[in-house]
Each structure stands twice: as C-alpha cells, then as structure tokens.
Design brief:
This protein is mainly α and 77 residues long. It has a domain at 16-67: 30s Ribosomal Protein S18 (Irregular), CATH 4.10.640. The chain has 4 helices and no strands. The longest helix is centred in the last third of the chain and has 16 residues, at 52-67.
Length: 77
C-alpha cells in the first residue's frame, strides 16, 4: 500500500571544475555526458557532487549543446 522511499546515497562534495579552475563548455561533449543520465536528463547536485555555481553553468551548457545538436534532447546517448 505504502511505497518505501529509498534515499539515494549522497556523493561527496568535490567540484572538479573548482579543483581544475576551469569552466564547463558546450563543446566538451564527453565531459557534459557525465552529468546526464542515459535518458538524457541532467543529474542533480546531490548525484554529481559539484557546487551550485557550476551546476547552473553545466545546465546552461548542456541546453546550449542540445540546441546546437551536439547532444540529443532525449535518450540514445
């Protein structure tokens, strides 16, 4: 009757962009794909472990890459 909520395991907070002092770019497709599911959805900060500033920029760059047809909008990565 009641569904049991399974809490996802949190990932340690270690932003790779802050460590390398780099910014996400829409042309780096392999890097952007690590922040997406196989269905094409953008992963949350809790799942990726990056900071809020870079999470916002990752989302923008993924959307930009989708519009330029570097990434698909849905499925099939």
């Amino acid at each position: 009757m009641y569904r049991k909520f399974i809490k996802p395991k949190p990932v340690p907070k270690n932003c790779s962009f802050c460590k390398e002092d780099k910014e996400p770019d829409y042309k780096e497709i392999s890097k952007l794909r690590t922040f997406m599911t196989e269905r094409g959805r953008i992963l949350s900060r809790a799942r990726t472990g990056i900071c809020a500033k870079h999470q916002r920029r990752i989302a923008t760059q993924i959307k930009r890459a989708r519009h330029l047809a570097y990434l698909p909008f849905v499925g099939g990565l």
